[in-house]
Known about the structure:
The complex is a heterodimer of chains A (282) and B (218). Chain A is an alpha/beta fold and 282 residues long. Helix content of chain A is 36%, strand content 18%. Chain A contains eleven helices and eight strands. Chain B is mainly beta and 218 residues long. Chain B has one domain (8-217): Porin, CATH 2.40.160. Helices cover 5% and strands 53% of the residues of chain B. A ten-stranded antiparallel β-barrel of chain B has the order 1-3-4-5-6-7-8-9-10-11. In chain B, a hairpin with a 5-residue loop joins strand 6 and strand 7. Chain A binds chain B through residues 7-8, 11-12, 14-20, 24, 26, 85, 185-187, 189-191, 193-201, 203-207, 213, 232-235, 237-238, 241-242, and chain B through 20, 22, 73, 77-83, 85, 112-117, 119, 121, 123, 146, 148, 150-156, 158-160, 163, 186-187, 190-196, 206.
Amino acid sequence: MKKTLYIITLCLGIASCADIGSAMFFGGSGEYNFSNADLDTAYHIDEEKIHLFTVPSEDDTIHGLFLGDFSQIENDTIIVYLHGNGPSMDGFWSTVAVLANIGHQHRYGVVMYDYRGFGKSTGATQNAATMAADYDAVLLWLEDRGLTSDRMVVFANSLGSLPAGPAAAGGSRITVEKLVMEVPQSSADVIMQNATGLSLPSSMITEYNFDLGQDMENYPGELLWMHAEEDNVAPVETARSAMRRHEGSYYREEVYPNVGHGLRWDIGNEEWTRVIHEFILN
Amino acid sequence: MSYKPFMKKSIWVILAAFVAGCTPTKIVVPLEEGQVQVGATLGRPKINSGSLPLLGIYAAKGMSESTTAYGAAQLSSALFGAIQLDGGVVKGLRPSQGFTPGFSYSYGGNVFVSARDYAVRVYPEAGANMFWQKGPHILNVSANSWVDPTWFLAEYGRGQILAPSLGAGYRLRYKWLEVQAEYKIINPTREIHVPQAYVPSTLGLGGRGFYWGAAINF
């Protein structure tokens, strides 16, 4: 018995705490050449409405993009877009351009930013704390320009659901009242258990123990959940279980058969914008 | 070598063998009594177009002519902050004679401890091996299963009690040295899923990969 305890103690001592979480983030370089040449003409953005900005987040610098007029922040609906697991917000340019033009050209202001270690944002995303700090830094920027909760829509795509969940559950300086979860994950434990086939908790490999089901339980506002039946990045079954724990003021789910994680590309802009606009106007 | 008569009562072992391990089969043919083997294993379960390097070390000792005990630690898990230890016993049922295969079975357990929050999981395991031994050459077909007694802790009811694996391998055992190569099909009873990664499967289920090992005998 003594030997066993000795071995376990020794192993605890040598077990380093490298975190696989950072390896799961696909942050990379960013060019930030946001050009209309890359967009369908229906979704063009006037050049004077494309604004790059930076905000400090603890010791790091977060790079963001705002589409629209700054005056909109004070008196119109603003969509805060939390992007998915790509190298930088470059890859989401066409998506935010569509969001900005829902309804009619330049209808909504849209803000998007790169998490630490993504694009030109410095540092490295490591856990819930860094995600929350980066989100808060951008929210502070919006708050300073007059955004209020009744005019804010948070739109989370895939990885973006990780900071969006805690924000909706009370961790946002501007209260989240409308939340779109597009192809979200469900929890860190689910990812661990789907990868191993065992009941292992995520704490075996990472400190990033997110739980979107718990967050949805604690979120009193309106939720639109959009997902794909054939999603092989964020399995629909566990996402459904997590999202349906929401008991807030309004809930809508749109799950599409025969499509994958790239939901907007698969279902088309017309259907995608129809559902989102109905939710915004609800 | 002469093991005890084949134990027909050990059918449970064969049945339980249709279950899985994330670690390589360390001992197929029991060591000689008093013999000690110290080795390292490298598991390469496939993911995307490459594979994950799962490095482990182990020690085994022949407790009797037909019984070998072993203990092992997975170093790759330690790198990410989890202690993964396993230990068990391999018992020979019948030696190989000519084309007639020999049989052995094993049982043991795996312990995972998180260095972050000290969460603990224990997974008993059992397996069966069929092997052909001629001189230093050993060919084996193995089946193994981990048992998940805390399957109910898996989120959203996705736990499974058994996690099986099937493998086939070759070992070269000399007096001082043993090397091994094994191909395993892991957890073929459920879909293995890693976000934004492709896990090569068998008919859409489980994972697969090569496992290697090298050991010194004393």
